[in-house]
Every structure is written in C-alpha cells, then in structure tokens.
Design brief:
By secondary structure, the protein is of the alpha/beta class. It has 3 domains: 146 residues, no CATH class; 39 residues, no CATH class; 246 residues, no CATH class. The chain has 6 helices and 36 strands. The strands form 7 sheets. Strands 6, 9, 12, 16, 22, 23, 26, 28, 30, 32, 34 and 35 form a 12-stranded mixed β-sheet that branches. Strands 1, 2, 3, 4, 5, 17 and 36 form a 7-stranded antiparallel β-sheet that branches. A 6-stranded mixed β-sheet has the order 24-25-27-29-31-33. It is globular.
C-alpha cells in the first residue's frame, strides 16, 4: 500500500514537472519565434524606409535631413500597419561630391536609419548606414523607371549611361543596336528578345567592353555581340531568348565540368562579367559594362509624376477643389486651409502660363503676380489647337489645346524666366484628348538655359537650341517633336511631310506599358518622343538625354505606327557630352537616387543610452 502511494505521488510529480517543462519550452519557443519575427520585421521596415528616403531626396525634400546629427521621425506602412523609423545625417559629415572619369557627378549623403519592430513581447531595433547617391538624370543617355525596350528599325547607336529600374529588352528589327558605353545596368534582368515575345530575338546587339572613359577616343573600342536565340540554336545550344538573363546554366560543350573550352558558354551571370569586362591588357581602372540586379544593381528613384502636376494633394495647402466646377481654386478659408498645393515645377517656375477653362490664358511671374496683359503685348504667348492622331481615342477628332510660346519673342520680351523654369498647364486637362499643355516654336536660340514643363503634352516645333547651345530640357506627360516643315495643317486622314530637324535638349516624358497578353508594343525607346508627320528619308536629330520616369496619365493614347499617325524618321540620337559638366545641365535637373547599404547592426532607439 505504502509503495503504491509513493509510486502514485512520484508519477504525479513527474507529470507535473513534464507539464511545467513543456510549458516553459513552448514559451521559450514562442519567445524565440517572436524575437526572430521582430528582427525580420525591423529589417523590412529599414528597407521600406530606405526607399522612402530615396523618394524624398529624388523629390527635392533634402531639407528633411538637416541639421546633421538630428533624428527626424517618420512612419512607413507595411501590410496596412504604420511603423516608426528615424533618419539622421551623420555628425560632421557633409554631402560629398564625386566625379568619375567621364565627368559624371554623384552626390553622396551619408544617413543613419533606425527602425523599431514589436512582435508580442519581443522588441527589435535595427540600424542601417546608407550612402544616398544622387546623380542628375540628364547624365544618363537613357534612363527608365520601368522596363526599357529597344527594337529599332534603322541601325541605332547609344553612347552614354543606360539604366532601367526594371528589365532591359533588346531586339533590333533586322538591324544593329550598338551600345557604345561602359554602363548598361538593370535593377531587373537583361533580355535579348522582345518583351511581348522573348522568342523574337532578332538583329545584332553589340556592347562595348568596359573602359574607364568611353568618351575618350584614345580608349580601346572593343565590342562583343550578344547572341540571339537563333544563333545559339544553330550551334546546338538550347536557350530561351539568346545569351541573356534566361541563360542561367551555361553550356559545357564537351561535358568536362568546366566552361573553359572552345564552344563553352558561361552562365549569363558570370558571362556578362567575362564578355563585357575590360579588354585584355587594359591599363586603366577596370570594371564591367553589363550588370543586373543579380550583380547587385539597385533601384534608382526619380521624381514622381506629381512633380509636373499643376496642383497636388497637400494638407494645409492654399488651394481646394471647387465642388461645382471640379477645378482647383484658392481655398475659401485662406492660405493654409486648403487640400492642394502647386506641384514642384509649378511652384518653382519663374514664368507660369495657365490656359483657362474658357480657353483664354493667364501668365504669372515667380512671385505669383498676374502679368498677362504685359506678356500679351509682346506677342510671345497665344493659344492654338493641334490635331494629335495618337490621342484620337474613339474617333473624337483629337484636337489638343496648347499654350503657344514663341521663344524668339520671349527672349526679347523681358519676361524670359529669371531662373530658367517655364511652366504651362491646361486647367481643364483631365485625360483623353484633353492632354493640352505647351507648344514651343521659334526656339533655335534661347536667351538662357531653359527647362520647359507641362503636366500634359509638350510639343517642340522646329530646330531647338541649335544656336549658341544652352542647357535645355522639356518635361511633360508626353513629349512630341514637330519638324521644321510643320504648319499645323494636319487633319484626320492627312499626314503632312516633315523636314530635317535638330533638337538639343534633355527629354523627360511618359509612355505606355507593352502588353504581353495582347502583344501590344509601346513603341520602345526609338519612339519615346512622339512623331506626327511623314518622316520618310528625313532626319530627326536629338542631342541630349532620354528619360522615362513615369507612365503617361493625360496623354494616354496607345502607340500605333503608320496611317495618319506618323512614318519614322532617320534617327540620329546622341547623348550630349556637355551634360557631363554639371554646369551645363538644364535648370532644375532632377536626380536619380540610389540607396547604397554600407552597414547594418542591432541599434538603440534615438535618445537612449
């Protein structure tokens, strides 16, 4: 009996201990899980915060991060939940300018970002040191925020930096695409086919091996072809779209386990470095021309499309939406009580022209003073209608209203913008055919550096900035090029002939997305600036920079070739090497901002010891 009692109590004690141990182990396991989840959430907050910081800097919000050493508190949203993070510029460190061998300038701003995450009872604080690297977008020959597609008809050569935050697709239409650059970079992948059909891997793509300064004629000029799908298939190599990011396993011709023999092809990740690294025996600084996200290329943030809007949402703004007309009007309660404020370019402009809903126009100086009567007396500004076949959506006639600026008259009017920034908008622009904006004409010579911006379409008629060239650019939802022969006689079904025309300017414009499902092409880089004439055997020469940071919102007509749209010109498009000198950049040139991660560690909250 006593033995049975002892056994019973012993068994009970063991069960109790087992329950306690199991419960303790569960709590320890849960705590460990919470600690891990909190750490990874903190790391996620840091990544989200880094992108938000890049966006702020790209949109000219530099003042948020000064003075040095002061923490600024922000929140970022992840899965619908707001999380706090802090940013400070590093004590005693200033913005550092750095130039590469080509003259390209990058500003480096060292920042410390700290994030806190809480899961259950576990709290994780992580910090990251980021070098925010800002490069003027016009120091790229080509810059795309989304996928960059090139399917040129005639031969095309691109000199200067080429960057895409998405993928790059190269498939010349039976011609040659020559990349005379040391900088072909994609945050995504590089493909040797068309986006809408990767198997359409055509033409010839030649990419230059890396040299420190491709603009220096004394540097070696060695090119390596990027093989097409057909070229690889012809020699018995199975592939998806040629020698590109899809070529992941390589080809070992003799099966000996290496890629060192004749007929072998390295996997693209390594092969890109081998093919387009510096040529053998190169004595300068070595590097690699073709790099992708898998090589560590990060996203470069550019200004958002709201920067070109006449007005954007802003708490405590000076403007609001009139409930009756839907137009933006001064806030009834006075400045600081409204829901909207002017977009960046509108707010900064030295001269603003606004086409009113009744088709009249008004002009304002940098201080907001109405100078309409004075400018009207010079004849420098008027309004007109343009037939834009690309905007002929639903057979509407596509009459686009524009503010017309005669640059030659503006030069001598006394009202040329003092800071080089001209802004124009159609206050009734709301999409479709109402993508009205700005037309520049007689602009062969500029009184000074000039950036012309519209929230809608920008049309540039005739030779532009060809006499005593200045730093110049045009920025809009869509940028349209009209030749020296343009007389505004175009109507539906009528395609007037163009004449040779030259533009020296940077271009920032939107485009539409190609659609794989419907095999719809967006026209690619070769059609980024829009044409409206019969250009057969005529030359459209652009010297500058081509930047596509957003999708067109107001000028949303799809790219279609032929009919009464346009016929393609001979394209002579070059990067303007003058932009390698920062002093020659157009006024208010935006920056592309990359967040370079230097280090990260388990941190402490600001103000803690």
């Amino acid at each position: 009996m006593a033995s049975a009692v002892i056994t019973m109590f012993t068994t009970g004690a063991l069960v109790a201990v087992s329950v306690v141990l199991a419960s303790s182990q569960d709590r320890a396991s849960q705590t460990a899980r919470y600690e891990t989840e909190a750490e990874y959430l903190a790391r996620g907050i840091l990544q989200s915060a880094k992108r938000e910081v890049q966006t702020k800097l790209a949109n000219w919000e530099w003042d948020d991060f000064f003075p040095a050493g002061k923490h600024i508190e922000y929140t970022t949203e992840i899965d619908g939940v707001d999380h706090t993070y802090w940013v400070k510029s590093i004590d005693l460190v200033e913005i550092v300018p750095s130039w590469d061998a080509t003259g390209t300038l990058t500003y480096y701003l060292p920042l410390e970002i700290t994030a806190q995450a809480t899961i259950g009872d576990s709290v994780s604080v992580r910090s990251m040191l980021v070098a925010a690297a800002a490069t003027p977008v016009f120091q790229f020959a080509v810059f795309y925020t989304d996928d960059l597609e090139i399917s040129n008809g005639p031969n095309m050569e691109i000199g200067g930096r080429v960057h895409s935050n998405g993928d790059i697709y190269m498939s010349p239409n039976g011609s040659t695409l020559t990349m005379n650059t040391n900088y072909l970079r994609a945050n995504g992948d590089v493909y040797r086919g068309r986006k809408t059909n990767l198997a359409a891997s055509n033409g010839t793509v030649e990419i230059r091996r890396y040299v420190e300064n491709p603009f220096d004629p004394s540097e070696p000029e060695t090119y390596v072809d990027m093989a097409t799908k057909g070229e690889l298939t012809a020699i018995g190599i199975t592939n998806t779209s040629g020698y590109d990011s899809n070529f992941t396993t390589g080809h070992d011709a003799n099966g000996d386990g290496d890629f060192d023999d004749v007929g072998d092809f390295l996997p693209f990740l390594a092969g890109a470095l081998d093919n387009w690294g510096s040529p053998s025996g190169y004595t300068g600084t070595t590097g690699y021309t073709v790099l992708t996200g898998e090589h560590g290329i990060g996203e470069a943030i550019t200004p958002e499309i709201e920067s070109i809007s006449a007005y954007e949402e802003a708490t405590g703004g000076d403007y609001e939406i009139d409930s009756g007309t839907g137009l933006i009007v001064p806030a009834a309660g006075g400045p600081g009580t409204g829901t909207h404020g002017p977009g960046f370019f509108h707010e900064s402009a030295g001269l603003t022209i606004m086409v009113q809903p009744d088709d009249s126009w008004k002009a304002y100086d940098y201080a907001g003073n109405d100078i309409t009567t004075a400018i009207a007396a010079t004849g420098a500004v008027s309004t007109d209608m343009i037939y834009d076949a690309r905007q002929d959506i639903g057979d509407t006639g596509a009459e686009v209203q524009v503010a017309v600026v005669d640059v030659d008259l503006l030069n001598s009017s006394g009202y040329f913008p003092y800071n080089g920034l001209l802004y124009a908008a159609d206050l009734d622009a709301d999409g479709g055919v109402k993508c009205g904006g700005l037309l520049l004409k007689n602009g062969s010579e500029l009184a000074g550096p000039l950036t012309a911006v519209s929230q809608g379409a920008v049309y540039v008629q005739g030779d532009y900035n060809t006499v005593a060239k200045k730093g110049a650019s045009v920025v809009g939802d869509a940028v349209n090029l009209l030749s020296n022969a343009w007389d505004n006689s175009k109507t539906k079904g009528n395609l007037p002939s163009a004449d040779d025309t030259t533009w020296n300017m940077g271009i920032i414009t939107g485009n539409q997305e190609s659609d794989k499902a419907t095999n719809t092409y967006n026209g690619g880089l070769e059609n980024l600036p829009r044409f409206h004439e019969k250009w057969s055997n005529k030359t459209a020469e652009i010297t500058g920079s081509l930047v596509c940071p957003w999708q067109s919102v107001l000028c949303d007509g799809e790219w279609i070739y032929g009919d009464d749209r346009y016929q393609a010109p001979k394209r002579v498009w070059n990067y303007d090497t003058a932009f390698n000198n920062f002093a020659n950049l157009p006024p208010f040139s935006p920056f592309a901002v990359v967040g370079l991660e230097v280090a990260d560690w388990a941190g402490r909250l600001p103000g803690s010891n």
